[in-house]
Amino acid sequence: MRLADLSSALILGVAGAVAVAALAANGGRGSPELDLLSEFAPIFVGAGLLALVAAIWVRRWARPPLLVLGFLSLAGGAWLMTPEFLRDQGPVAPADAPGQIKIIQFNTLQTNEHVGAVADWLAAENPDIVTIQEARHDLRDVLKTRTGWQVAGAAGNLMIFSRAPRIRMDRPTIGPPGHLHWVNATYPSASGPYEVVTVHLGWPIGPGQRFQWAQLAALLHHWPTDRMILAGDFNATPWSSAMRTGEAALPLFRRDRAIPTFPATWRTDEPVRAPFAILPIDHVYAGRGWATVKVERGPNLGSDHYPLVITLAPVAAAKSP
User: Fold this and answer.
1) How far is CA 219 from CA 108, 171, 197, 249, in A?
2) CATH fold of the domain at 101-314
């Protein structure tokens, strides 16, 4: 077999495997194993486009099947991703809206050695609320010393930092312990108190994450939700069935839309910066009493996640859903 035929056959084989995975991922509603494939929908779209382009160069006999497989990969991935771009993100507000608050959501990574850079950036941003997963205690101590911020959950690795002292921490008991990892507190603002909840869900392997989503929905109904803010590392992309089903039960609007936060670095013996992030797995939700002013992604700070920076403004006369 000539080299051109061999390479064409190899490209066809890879395209076939990707197309099968893209189609199988659309069966994730009834299967956690298939739903895991849906997390890679952007890769299916990219691979489908590459297959369509590669059809120009492959041998003539390989072009028709490669075009079909490329289209199937593209269509399978796009079908999973399209609802994310059609959904309601909740109320919006102009840049000069009064009463704004800034929230930063960041999985700082337990093994991140750039604690100083993380602390410098957070202090410079001067947010009202910072929700952190995999928080190192030396980062906690540096931030408290430098900024005077209060910390909820200071003894663990899931923390909420705030410029204003919290009003209270009301922690209800939910379901079997050890499944949903969460911290909450109530904070004051010029427009009234608001609840902040941060979570770190498990990996989307098996049914465990779906159980955590159900626990989360039950948890949130313990507090007023019109001014609630929920932020965390959900380890789930918006095109997964587990996340779409889970967040549909939440009385909140997700304010980020398809912002990739992972991976920021490849974890080897020495962290290597990833050329680009692919998966949006960090998210911020807020009740209908908040309008979105701005949503941004922060810089690479040595973690395998990028931070999210969300600015909200109060909506007048908001009512709880």
Assistant:
1) 25, 9, 10, 11
2) Deoxyribonuclease I; Chain A (3.60.10)
Residues across the chain: 321
> For tokens 């670095």, what's the residue?
265
Tokens of 132: 């952190």
Q: How far apart are the first and last CA of the chain?
A: 66
| Pairwise CA distance, residues 161 & 210, whole Å | 28
In three-state form (DSSP H/G/I as H, E/B as E, the rest C), the secondary structure along 24-60 is HHCCHHHCHHHHHHHCCHHHHHHHHHHHHHHCCCCCH
Amino acid, single-letter form, for residue 112: N
Question: What is the residue extent of each domain of the chain?
Answer: 3-85, 101-314
Residue 272 has pLDDT above 90, yes or no: no
pLDDT digits (tens, 9 = 90+) for 69-94: 999 999 999 999 999 999 999 999 99
> Which pTM was predicted?
0.93
Closest to 305 measured CA to CA, from 156, 132, 138? 132
Query: Sign of the C-alpha dihedral, residues 202, 203, 206, 211?
Result: positive
